[in-house]
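Pasting as-is:
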Amino acid sequence: MLTFFKKIFTWWNQDTFGTRIQTIFSGKFIGKDNFGNKYYENKKGKRWVIYSDEIDASKIPVEWYSWIHHTPNNLQNNQEPDKHNWQKPHQPNLTGTKKAYYPNRNNNEISKKYKTWKS
């Protein structure tokens, strides 16, 4: 019951009731990425994504980002693009989380790197 109300009244958890209805009646499933996000398209060419958990646009990998913005690439041929060995796996924006990047995290951040002239 709580999940039903969550779908109706919140937009930041996966999809809303309206998006679910549109997906059922006019959405054609195109594919799924590594994060579990599902991609759909209707007959008119409108494309949308249903996120696997919390909505965050930075969770869309590069291949699917180009597809959702109508930029041609290999996904239209149902082929995974070639990955190079130097490419890192896609990560969402980690700003504000415990996994965020902080320079000099392992060093003593609090100690000053200068001394005042009044000693």
